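Protocol step 4 of 5: obtain the predicted structure for the target chain.
Materials: sequence only (see below). No template structures provided, no constraints applied. The aim of this step is simply to have a reference model before the mutagenesis design in step 5. Sequence pasted as it appears in the construct record:
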Amino acid sequence: MSAQHSILLVGESNVGKTHYGAQFLKRLMVEACALKRNGAATNLEAFTTALGCLADGKATNHTPVSTYVESIWPIKDDAGRTAELVWPDYGGEQVRNLVTQRRIPAPWRERVLEATDWVVLLRLHSLRAEDDLFSRPLQSFANAETKEITEFQPSDQARTIELLQMLLYLAQFNLDRKLRKPRLTVLLSCWDELETSELPENLLAATLPMFWAFIRSNWESPTVMGLSALGKALSMTESDPDYAIRGPEEFGYVILPHGKKDNDITLPIQWLMSTWA
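Step 4 output (structure tokens):
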């Protein structure tokens, strides 16, 4: 079976996109995962640099703001489903700027229009969780003292919702019924720093209730998983001896929707592929 599928990977800065891409690519190279390479990959410069850092047991630098490079990895699964995994490497600030500047650059526009599946990376530990109308009763705002209003800053939760709304508008999806396509997967990255035993979906619902309500209202079957691409925090200056000795492919894991922990970090993409008709 063959299919033309393109996956849009969206994440702001410091959510671990490049580390996940490098670890994913390493799994494909050593054939230690549920997916297999189905041809030669292209444009691997950004990820080979990251792989070099991880091989030394160090974290890699963040991608520069102005960078937007697409790496294409032909893949297949055990059932014969094939795809070209288009893995973009970009400065995460670009995602924030899509909302603040209200404009979508040409590379993003093309990718959104072509995408059949969306994967959104969120790092819950770094998101602000301010009180708003959805988490506090109206009376508490009525009784609050009047404060001088400064420049308006939407909450991280509201900005993430607005980003999805912009992408949906650009792709011209009709929201009169819940979406079956593009399929939506939310990866809660840097899961190891959360120190929780909660199911990913329950944790997302408790932490970002407005965002969870939005995607539940607009997608038929959104998937939520936990992701720790590195398995633990790494320094950019000091080498981790375990990484250097055992190899980066021995580290990292995902938390599947039902709570099972698995060392195969390609499973979120394989999970998507398993839903393709």
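Step 4 remarks: Strands lie at 7-11, 36-37, 68-76, 82-90, 117-122, 183-188, 223-228, 253-255, 261-262. The first strand starts at residue 7 and ends at 11.
Proceed to step 5.
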